[in-house]
Amino acid sequence: MYTGLPVTACLPQYLEPRYDPPQTNQEPTETQVVVDVFFTPLCTALRSEEGAVMRQAAEAFGGRVIVREWSVGDPEVRMNFGIARAIFVNGVMRPNDDIIGLEEATGLIVDALERPVPDGAVWDDSISRLF
Description:
The chain is 24% helix and 15% strand. The chain has 131 residues and is an alpha+beta fold.
């Protein structure tokens, strides 16, 4: 990515990824699982395919699961989180693999229902970073 730049060019400064697990008591009363989907609109569209799959999986659990989507096309989201693409389920990041399937999305929600929300975010090393 940096090849061919003039010697006077400054290398990009990556944003530090930041994410705090949601506090379910700050969400609607019956909510037990909060899913945050970060997506890059340049790669998909104005809504993310991962978000659509997570919303479909969440339907089976009613109001116990909410799905929030964060478009990093929004400069404020980019600066606040420094994340280009990720899925967090109650603060635990899914490894950045290919597109998520319904079975995996449902499994992530079931797992989150069975464990407490961590004190801090649980990161995967494959995080997509922004600069």
